[in-house]
Amino acid sequence: MQKKILKEFFLFILLSCSIYAQEDFNTLTVTDTLLINFSNHYKLKALSILPFSESVLFKGSKLKNDEYRLDYKHVYIRLTDPSLFSFGDSLFVTYETILIDLKKEYKRRNLVVKYDDLHLDTTKVIKLEYAPLTSESIFGRDIQKSGSIVRGFTFGTNNDFTLNSGLRLQLSGRLSDEIEIVAALSDENTPIQPEGNTERLEELDKVFIEVRHSNVVGTFGDYDLKEKYGQFGNIDRKLQGLKGEFNFGDNTGVISLAGSRGKYNTNQFLGQDGVQGPYRIYGANNERYITIIAGSENVYLDGVELIRGENNDYTIEYSNAEIIFTYKRIITSVSRITVDFEYTDRNYRRNFFGTSFKTKYFDDRLKIYFSYYREGDDEANPVDLTLSDEEKRIMEEAGSNRNKAVVSGVKLAEPDSTGRIIGIYVKVDTLLNNEQFIYYLYNPGDTQALYDVTFSFVGEGKGDYRKESLGHYKFVGIGLGAYLPVKYLPFPELRQQGNILIDAEPFEKVNLILEFAGSLYDMNRFSNVDDDDNFGYARNISLTAKPREISLGDVNLGKIGFAFRDRYMQDKFTSIDRINDVEFNRYYNIQNDIKANEELREVNLSLQPLNQLKIVSKYGYLKKGEVLTSNRYLTNLNLLEEKSYSLDYNFDYVKSNNNNLLTKWLRQNGNSYFILDKYKLGIEFLHELRKDFPSEVDSLMSTSLKYLELGPYFEVVNIFGFNVKAKYSFREESYPIDGILKKESSADTKSIGLSYRGIPEITSSLDVIFRNKKFTEIYKVRGFTDSETILIRSQSKLNLWSNFIEGDIYYEAATEKSAKLERIFVPVPQGSGNYIYLGDLNNNGIAEENEFELTAYDGEYIVTTIPTDELFPIINLKANTRWEIDFSKFIKDNTFIGKLLNAISTETYVRIEEKSKINDTHKIYLLNTSCFLNDSTTIYGSNYFQHDVYLFKSRSNLSFRLRFTQRKSLNQFSGGLEKGFFRERSLRIRFKMVKEINNQTEVINQTDNIIAPSTSNRARMVTSNEFNTDFSYRPIGFLEVGFKIKVMQNQDNLPVNPTIINTNSLLLRVNLSFAGTGRLRIEFERNELNANTSSNYIPFEITKGNAIGKNYYWRFNFDYRIASNLQTSISYDGRYHSKGKVINTMKAEARAYF
């Protein structure tokens, strides 16, 4: 009965509003001006006329009803006696019409008459009428599109009026039968580097338009330029600008005009035993703090290119320029790591111009290539660099010598408003080795701290200072550090390279290549000094005869191939990208970057007497000026019968003379296996013997070495669902002592890979690698210590007894290196941060951590962490497991016990993370938890446990949840040790009183303790008890009214006199939904906090941004969908804190989707 009355009342309100609207708002008064014409037929503009509402005026007089005739049905008027009216006079017809959104007629096309110039006659053609504006009418039917455009504004008491806009649009499809477009557009600046832990990157900031035609392709925006022509015409860059490509018959070309996103550089270094990473990458001039351009890197291990990704070979942190290798690539002290990459140092804007052209003649038997690339810094447009006139003068005089472009990093601090000079470094004058020496001591706040000092990274063992934290450098002794108090002035450079190549095929399967390249490298565009030696050239000649069948009489010798190469590079020639193989210097025993003319000749002969057997022999001769001469002999033998056996053997011998240092270097490696059904048995071996000695002297140099490694392995494929690969390798290394090779160490590596997919309910994988390296006693007394490498990764997923038990387990352990983290505060626009700066409270000129305070509103800083310089060897453990048990999916009994168990389900989650410096690493990877979170050995650690027990989880009328959560953490920040403990015990009850009324009630007990250094304000020992209940009333489907009551007590036991805060809170809300179109939400909240003291510091975690006293909040949110692809939203927030002022903020936004 009540529902019927409610419906009738609601209907009455709607009808009343409708009638009122019709009377006052659904009619419109219209006046038409009509010129007198001979046809005496006057069409009115409106779709309809309310009868007898018209008024007809002529020369200011109203016509009588018998002087005209109005057709209400067809909406036109006629004059009874048109002779009384003069041609050209005007009638004014005023009438009322119904306001309705209808047209007189609807049509998509119309017949129009046009004159045909060809046939000299008129013809009727179809003309498309105006169509409504839709995304299809904008982009066309053949365009696939997605994205959105956003426009909005924000203003408030603490905010200026701000316009917000954003565009993200992706397009692909055909503009016409011959033109195709692909585009990704955005007007948002997204300085977010993608995470380098996946094989494919999501480059969120990539914006481009690419228009394609069968003959021409144009790209505007961000693009990759990759070209490879011969030996010298190689380029691989990430650019921003314009690229055009054309293809007409046998002619193709590319032109590129852009801004270069970064500089190209290469790092080469050896790995370390027991360290999978991180390995830091440096700039071309040893810059430490660089940002690698995402996706620009190519990483090589022992000459083999690796694949990025957590499940592949390595991960990379682009912002910190650090690489970590995964369990699939074990790193040792002899691992040769090479990284090609682009990076940005934000010194100068960089410009790029490039063009290449290719043409073919005589059915592709003659090809001509040409390329030119120009890449350089714009010295007139520095980015984050400010140069004084004196610094520019220094660079003008420095020429190409970087060591001359150095200025002191020490300067006297600027006086403050009171005239006081407040620096952060004290100048210390002392004696070292009986000589006067000056160094600088970090001591902010000291009256003698008058200096600000800039330090530069110069390389380990080349500096006098060590970096402790951001801005804090410590003097450690001459030559014992990596930093100096100097400032290296960055040179703006310019590189140019041109290349021409002729590729001819004079005979079938015979190729002759002639290539010439020239380069210009201006190392310092500020200076003209030494510019006469910028030009260099190179040439390459190669002759290749592809393998072909050779017979001697009736004897088939098999396939024989031949190749010859003669290359010359002048010492001043500089390539714009990599031209040699990654291992080229190793191939010819090039020990350092020798600046001399280079001659290279290589002869290659291949023989394939059988389909299963291939032999390749190679001879190489390299000469660099009068400094280095090297001869290389290489043979590869490959015997392969697929699915049966394989033998691969490499013999590589190099004999060289480098400044009278003679080297004989033998390198061998091989791999052999045979397959029997599902079993595979094989062996690998590596061997090197290198002897370096001065001419006419038998004593070996320290660079000599010898090692032998043998590694038998065994594989099983799909036996009862199992796949197994096991390998054991043994390695011995010898190095010279007193000119004689002596055994240095022995290392054994045990690895096993196991996976199971025998039944669909269980999938599991396990990879384990253990490597132990032990040094001989003669080397231990020289300071060498044994090392251990551990790499473990396991993943399992279980689904048992029809989802009765579901679980997954993840475990990973690896030996790495790790640095302590430093918390820094980064300024952001007001309102987008969560910290405010309280000012220099101790007047030491340093913004320290305890001078920043958390805030819920109007924050101007965010906190982030950066690694410090010092790295510690650690074992890194990550493990987590999740289990769900649902008795209702297993027990189907209707007995009392069965019904009782059916109501129970549980969820359990455990996560453990530990980075530890402990020497007994097995205590970590075997989960000896008593060694976790140790003050002296743990760099970072966290233990998290959560267990939920549900009763009637799937019921909507009544359900219970019991939760227990506990988290322990420890972090060795650069500023000191921070330990945390958090525990929560809670009960949640969801109850439906009647169909329209729901309630959720929670009882929560929490403990939140943090032990932090005195320089931080994060320390607390908080215990809280909370009770809250939330009622929701939904009388009709689109209306919800609710209120929430909360009472809480927080007690901080850290102060001598504990702080006790009692909180009571009331929240009222109304939610109104408009079916399929929008939603309105109105909230009012009152929070009252009462404290027992006003003298103690109260952590933000207790108040949650509220002030002691009464706090009021009111919120209004309205979302409305105007059309299927147009969404609008309006929000208004107001707040009042005790003894404060009212703060208002309003936001409005319109978002269109494509």
Describe the protein.
- The protein starts with a helix and ends with a strand.
- 18% of the residues are buried.
- The chain is mainly beta.
- The strands form 11 sheets. It has a 38-stranded antiparallel barrel.
- It is 5% helix and 61% strand.
- Among the domains are: 2-98, Immunoglobulin-like (Sandwich); 114-175 and 1019-1154, no CATH class; 263-345, no CATH class; 406-488, no CATH class; 812-991, no CATH class.
- It has 8 helices and 67 strands.
Topology:
Elements: H1 2-24, E1 27-35, E2 42-43, E3 55-58, E4 61-62, E5 68-71, E6 76-79, E7 90-98, E8 109-116, E9 121-128, H2 135-139, E10 143-156, E11 159-174, E12 180-186, E13 208-212, E14 216-229, E15 233-248, E16 251-260, E17 263-270, E18 279-280, E19 291-292, E20 298-301, E21 304-305, E22 314-317, E23 322-325, E24 336-344, E25 348-361, E26 366-382, H3 389-398, E27 406-408, E28 410-412, E29 425-432, E30 435-442, E31 449-453, E32 456-457, E33 465-469, E34 472-475, E35 483-484, E36 486-488, E37 494-507, E38 510-522, E39 535-552, E40 555-569, H4 584-587, E41 598-610, E42 613-624, E43 628-641, E44 645-658, E45 661-676, E46 679-694, E47 705-719, E48 722-737, E49 740-759, E50 762-775, H5 777-780, E51 787-800, E52 805-827, E53 833-837, E54 852-859, E55 861-886, H6 896-902, E56 904-916, H7 922-925, E57 938-951, E58 958-973, E59 976-994, E60 997-1011, E61 1020-1036, E62 1039-1052, E63 1059-1074, E64 1078-1091, H8 1100-1103, E65 1109-1123, E66 1126-1136, E67 1142-1153
Antiparallel strand pairs: 1-7, 2-6, 3-4, 3-7, 5-6, 8-9, 10-11, 10-67, 11-12, 12-13, 13-14, 14-15, 15-16, 16-25, 17-24, 18-23, 19-24, 20-21, 20-24, 22-23, 25-26, 26-37, 27-36, 28-31, 29-30, 29-31, 32-35, 33-34, 37-38, 38-39, 39-40, 40-41, 41-42, 42-43, 43-44, 44-45, 45-46, 46-47, 47-48, 48-49, ...
